[in-house]
Amino acid sequence: MSPIHANPHPGGQGHVTFLGAGPGDPGLLTLRAVEALAQADVLVADPQVYDMVRAHTRTGVEVPLQAAEDEPTGERVDLVMRAAGAGKRVVRALLGDPGLDSHASTEMLACAREGITYEVVPGVATAVGVPAYAGVPLRHEQGVNVRLVDAGTADEQCWSEAGSSDATVVVSTTLGQVSGAAAELVNAGRKPDTPVAVTVAGTTTRQRTWTATLGSLQQTLKSAKVLPPAGDIGPPVIAVVGERAAEERDQLAWFESKPLFGWQVLVPRTKEQAASLSDQLRSYGAVPQEVPTIAVEPPRTPQQMERAVKGLVTGRYEWIAFTSVNAVKAVREKFEEYGLDARAFAGIKVAAVGEQTAAALVDFGVKPDLVPSGEQSAAGLLEDWPPYDPVFDPIDRVFLPRADIATETLVAGLIELGWEVDDVTAYRTVRASPPPAPTREAIKGGGFDAVLFTSSSTVRNLVGIAGKPHNVTVIACIGPATAKTAEEHGLRVDVLSPEPSVLRLAEALAEFGAQRRAAALEAGDPVKRPSEKRPARRRARTS
Q1: Looking at domain 297-431, which CATH architecture does it have?
Q2: What are the structural domain ranges in the chain?
Q3: What is the pLDDT of residue 540?
């Protein structure tokens, strides 16, 4: 156990926040939870929620121990108490809601006995959040009661009361023990034909829900081949038992019916480049994984870039044109090196290609004067670029910071419009290092459901560093040139974006996924992801 370093706050009094992190979806963290995490000196978190809460803590927060499910309660209490006793702000993050966690109440009592101040930040309770994501309402217009049962601590009286009532029963248990819980309810008086909905990994993109009756649940799970081996309790589940527990799920299962639900989507870009694209994919239910195919390095001879930035400050240019986020980043870094900021753009017109490039400029404090109204490309920018007019344009020169491998389309077009162009290498692009071995195996073995190619170079580089995607993987390309490169590498292009935009590419993939889902449902077939259709032999070898 790592030591808690003393860093007392005024008065030497620590503080503990018992924080409910919700059932698993990071988007269910409350605003108050995020605020408390940002102020924490020490974080003690349940393992199921550690990653999501750690993302909201400040640099330097102490994480002396990731609380384990089988960790003795006394050790966890001691850890929290020692940190608070050292004057620290401690956040104790728990799965679901602290008010429904017996361990949390034990820790709260310990704080109270020692005179340590604490607060409780409620979270979305697992017993409530999971059914909502599964499309299983707990209450209806008839106003039926709801009973919560923890199968791990329920005694004979608890089962008897739940079984003899007509309430909707929400059972917290495990996949290996849920059939036993169903039998307890039947033995206590519930009819074997009472509907039940069982959800595993609720509110996450691994969520799966099965519907059955209390009497048929064991056979349903056995047929689905999801029961854990004998002696293994399996993952936690929430089971909802009641007369109307499953009858409307076909219409209400909003989460699992997302067009790309559970799809593992490979995004061959860096996290910085792929941020908005990955967010959009998540909104469709996908699980994006960014794999950089290029690395960005400074130019071999930086003097040209240095002269151009100095010329920008001294009034050498009428325009500066950014064709990528990396170009914005290169200029911004050079500005910071010279102690400059966005005010240096005063009096200079700024052009940007693409919504992400424009967003990077806005983040820098610069609003672009020109963004293509049509195609987001060099050709689209030239369509809207004004010709040089000596009457209205006091300066005839354009600063174009770009990659070393950029095409000459924009330079030639600007010269044709009468402009002088300082075509400056702002950064170099080189092939990235290969991804980890498991990722390479997943790419070649069909572990990904789809891959998004946003340029011809991403096709060439991904194949070069990781190999060719498996033939079950859906290939989506941003435009005809990228699609042609993919086909030249032996790939079947399934999705082509109607516009050269990464966001429209994601939309097109979602539409493709929705059509696949609709076709499977119409045919009466189970809805499967592309990766689930791999040959069994190949799946076993690469899993």
Answers
A1: 3-Layer(aba) Sandwich (3.40)
A2: 13-124, 128-252, 264-293+433-542, 297-431
A3: 39
Q: How confident is the model at residue 8 (pLDDT cuts 50, 70, 90)?
A: very low
Burial class (CB in 10 A: 0-12, 13-18, 19+), 347: exposed
Residue 450 reports pLDDT greater than 70: yes
Residue 509, SS3 per DSSP? helix
Which CATH class name applies to 13-124? alpha beta
Query: Closest by alpha carbon to 469, among 480, 478, 459?
Result: 459
Q: How far apart are CA 455 and CA 330, in angstroms?
A: 21
Measured in whole angstroms, the distance separating CA 111 from the mean position of its chain's CA atoms is: 35
- For the cut 70, the answer to whether the pLDDT of residue 72 exceeds it is no
**44 neighbors 17 (Cβ within 8 angstroms):** no
Higher-pLDDT residue of 5, 315: 315
Q: What 3 state SS string does 475-526 have?
A: EEECCHHHHHHHHHCCCCEEEECCCCCHHHHHHHHHHHHHHHHHHHHHHCCC
Six-digit token string for 51: 């990653």
For the stretch 43-57, pLDDT in tens is 999 888 999 999 999
- Tell me the pairing of strands 287-290 and 264-267: parallel
Helix (H) or strand (E) holding 5: none
Kindly write down the DSSP assignment for every residue of 98-134, as one continuous string.
Answer: GGG-HHHHHHHHHHHHHT-EEEEE----HHHHHHHHH
475 contacts: CB under 8 Å, gap ≥ 6: 450, 451, 453, 469, 486, 491, 492, 493, 494, 495
The two domains 264-293+433-542 and 297-431 share their CATH topology (first three levels equal)? yes
Which pLDDT value is given to residue 132? 95
The tokens describing 522, both together, are 């119409």
Residue 247: pLDDT band by 50, 70, 90 thresholds? confident
Helical ranges in 69-101 per DSSP H: 73-85
From first CA to last CA, the distance across the chain in angstroms is 34
CA distance to 235, 261, 512, per residue, from 205 (Å): 15, 6, 19
pLDDT at 7: 44
The pLDDT confidence band at residue 541, using thresholds 50, 70 and 90, is very low
> How is residue 350 written in tokens?
């700024």
Beta strands in 368-516 (DSSP E): 397-403, 420-431, 450-453, 474-477, 493-496
Q: Which of 186, 194, 195, 138 is nearest to 159 (CA)?
A: 186
Q: How confident is the model at residue 273 (pLDDT cuts 50, 70, 90)?
A: low
Which CATH code of 3.40.50.2300, 3.30.950.10, 3.90.1510.10, 3.30.559.30 fits the domain covering 128-252? Answer: 3.30.950.10
3-state secondary structure (DSSP) of residue 289: strand
Rg (the chain; Cα; Å): 29
| Nearest-angstrom CA–CA distance, 355 and 95 | 37
The Cα angle at residue 85 between residues 80 and 86, in degrees rounded to 5: 105
Does the pLDDT at position 271 exceed 60?
Answer: no
What pLDDT score does 65 carry? 63
Whose tokens are 């089962």? That residue is 159
Q: How far is CA 536 from the centre of its chain?
A: 29
